[in-house]
Design brief:
- GO terms for molecular function: metal ion binding; metallopeptidase activity.
- Keywords: Hydrolase, Metalloprotease, Protease, Zinc.
- It comes from Peptacetobacter hominis.
- There is one protein chain.
- This protein has 428 residues and is an alpha+beta fold.
- It has two domains: 220 residues, 2-Layer Sandwich (Cytochrome Bc1 Complex, Chain A, domain 1), CATH 3.30.830.10; 180 residues, Metalloenzyme, LuxS/M16 peptidase-like (Cytochrome Bc1 Complex, Chain A, domain 1, 2-Layer Sandwich), CATH 3.30.830.
- A seven-stranded mixed beta sheet has the order 1-2-3-9-4-8-7, with helices on both faces.
- Helix 9 crosses helix 12 and helix 9 crosses helix 15.
- The chain is globular, with a radius of gyration of 23 Å.
- The N and C termini lie far apart (60 Å).
């Protein structure tokens, strides 16, 4: 066991790697009534080609399989649903799949250890049959069709498709109706046995608990027959070119006002640990200065009636890819695009003032400290960062070390016009 103490934010973190490879983390939250646990695997919708555990040749699985597998984890061999027992214990449970990971979680004020045992047990109990897999296809097909009718979802994915030529991030997390109807129990088991191994997973717990009691409960709940992977997972990835796939994708939907996404593709990727976190912090500060509601651009666009309060600009960072995304609604999107470009060029030419930088930095510090009171924020971000080699407790220390010169340099790299893609949805 190792104990990590961060004196800056006065938080403690306990960590132990079990014999089966599972990384267990615990953050004490004294005085909190609620307890929170999330069990996550480093497996998301992007992981479509890999060498399965126990085999030596790569396979490519159907798109949407990580999301499909998440759905199927709740069905148990006795045909019960894992959610039902959480309800009996008075807990709130959920799960989600994104591009890079799948997570199963619950929060509870009582019966915590019963819930924790149940969480570990059902995630370690796969049950896929021809019948229950076939039944799930219709359910997920309806979910996919629902998102197909969501203009906000489509404008986002069209922007990803415009930015990326080969990377799987351009593929919808749920896949499409054709791909999910091709999924088989055998394929699900290959994914499960490879990616749901404890050595590819993280368990994070927080609450007013004791470490010794917690780690003993985790060890007892783990299935004794599951061993760590025999070798490191080999994921097959295509090299993504630096240039974008398309400059613009435009579609028409039944909406009253045009929606847009502007994406700036980042090419400084394959970073991990502090290097990744530092770039993320610098980029976030820049986005807050240029696109934030207290900035000149937002106020000019808003006061002139060009945007509403749905306008937002942010940076999205993963190990293999990263991009800046600006989203909003406007009756005159072309004018908005022009104004955004003008402001970016202005900041790149003139730089950011020391005063503006310090204000943005202090704002980020305040936001982070506020979020540290949210169990959901801490837990879900902890596991996401953990798979990128980052400890979320280091966030504030990295933020404080960022200097104005770092941000000025990053500003030149973050927005390259040749790597800008626009997604626009117009009224029919």
């Amino acid at each position: 066991m190792e104990k990590i103490v961060n004196n800056t934010i006065k938080e403690e973190l306990y960590h132990e790697k079990l014999d089966n490879g599972l990384d267990v983390y615990f953050m004490p939250k004294r005085g909190f009534m609620k307890k929170y646990a999330v069990l996550a695997t480093d497996f998301g919708s992007n992981d479509l080609e890999f060498i399965p555990e126990g085999e030596d040749k790569p396979i490519r699985v159907n798109e949407g399989i990580a999301h499909f597998l998440e759905h199927k984890m709740f069905e148990q061999p006795d045909e019960s649903n894992a959610f039902d027992l959480f309800s009996e214990y008075g807990a709130s449970a959920n799960a989600f799949t994104n591009f890079n990971m799948t997570a199963y979680l619950f929060s509870a004020t009582e019966n915590f250890y019963e819930c924790l045992n149940h969480l570990i047990d059902y995630v370690q109990t796969p049950y896929y049959t021809e019948e229950n897999v076939e039944k799930e296809k219709g359910i997920i097909a309806q979910e996919i069709k629902m998102y197909d009718d969501d203009p906000g979802w489509q404008v986002y994915f069209n922007c990803l498709k415009a930015m990326y030529k080969k990377h799987n991030v351009r593929i919808d997390i749920a896949g499409d109706v054709d791909s999910i109807y091709k999924i088989t129990p055998e394929e699900l088991y290959k994914c499960y046995n490879t990616f749901y191994n404890p050595s590819n997973m993280v368990l994070f717990v927080e609450g007013d608990l004791e470490w010794d009691e917690l780690i003993e409960a985790v060890k007892k709940a783990n299935h004794s027959d599951i061993k760590a992977l025999s070798k490191e997972i080999v994921r097959i990835k295509e090299n993504e070119p630096e240039d974008i796939a398309e400059e613009r994708i435009t579609e028409k939907y039944r909406i009253s006002m045009p929606k847009f996404n502007i994406g700036y593709k980042d090419v400084d990727v394959n970073l991990r640990g502090e290097a990744l976190l530092k770039k993320e912090v610098e980029s976030d500060i820049i986005c807050d200065i240029i696109f934030g509601s207290a900035g000149e651009l937002y106020n000019e666009l808003y006061m002139s009636g060009l945007i509403n309060d749905n306008f937002y600009g942010g940076f999205y960072s993963e190990v293999e890819y990263a991009f800046t995304l600006i989203s909003g609604e406007s009756e005159n999107p072309e004018e908005v695009f022009k104004k955004i470009e003008q402001y970016i060029e202005k900041f790149q030419k003139e730089g950011i003032s020391e005063d503006r930088f310090e204000r943005a930095k202090k704002k980020k510090i305040g936001e982070f400290l506020k979020y540290m009171d949210s169990m959901e924020f801490i837990a879900n971000n902890f596991v996401s960062y953990a798979f990128k080699g980052v400890n979320i407790l280091d966030y504030l220390d990295v933020l404080k070390k960022v200097e104005l010169e770092d941000v000025q340099k990053r500003l030149k790299e973050q927005f390259v016009k040749e790597r800008r893609a626009i997604s626009l949805i117009e009224p029919q």
